Amino acid sequence: MSLCDDTLLCNFPKCRAKLSGFAWVTACSHVFCDQHGSGEFSRSPAICPACSSALSGKLDIVRTELSPSEDYKAMVLAGLRPDIVMDISARALAFWSYQVHQERMYQEYSLSRAETQLKQMEKLLNQQNQSRELELSAMRGEIASLKKVMEEYKRKYSEVSERLMERNRQYQKLQGLYDSLRLRNMVVGVGERDALLQTGHHDFSTGVARQASPQRSPQFLSMGPDVDSRFFSCLEGDGAKTFFQFSSPAREKDRPFIKKH
């Protein structure tokens, strides 16, 4: 802000707005906008919001128009001696210079504060970058170790895969040998079974021809004087009674059986 600037800024800490219309000027060389001046200086005793000075005099606070009319300009200093006019003008210029200097000091303070915050932020950023670099280097080392482990697992996997393929080939060979042996055994077993069946059938036929069961298949090969004795001897046991019961159903139970010669 320079001496040639057309407007001043409100000295209220949270306002810093450009002044226009009416402003409140204090004896401690501070100026406030109409809104904050009306609010702050309505209380008694009045305290300057900028420097906390007590403003108890009648002319310690003045509400002035920043763009006076031409009539006001023509009459405000009319009738005053030149030295008084010069004194008033000097004091007004001193107030303006103080405002300019104050604004420059405020800007410098704001700049130094911003630089301090920037340095703190840069320091914090450097610390964070260092920590991130450490974490990144640690992660890179971990990635390298994991890559080594992965390569080792790949090597083991390839070895296991080769051994598995070799076992599969051996298994296929053994399976083929087993299938061929089983097929040969089946062929040999079928041949032996057929031979045994043929031998058993021949022996069975021969045995049947040689002997017969005395109870189920009685054989009457010859007829002679002792035919009755041989006939009854073949029917001894449990089948004799049954044979006579079913062979002579019309015979009465109390009729004696007469043996004929």
From TrEMBL:
Residues 10-52 form the RING-type domain. It comes from Seriola dumerili (Greater amberjack). It comes from the Eukaryota. It holds the Pfam family zf-RING_5. GO terms for molecular function: ubiquitin protein ligase activity; zinc ion binding. This is Cyclin B1 interacting protein 1. GO terms for biological process: reciprocal meiotic recombination. Keywords: Coiled coil, Metal-binding, Zinc, Zinc-finger. The keyword Zinc applies. PANTHER family: E3 UBIQUITIN-PROTEIN LIGASE CCNB1IP1 (PTHR14305). The keyword tRNA-binding does not apply. Residues 111-170 form a coiled coil. GO terms for cellular component: synaptonemal complex.
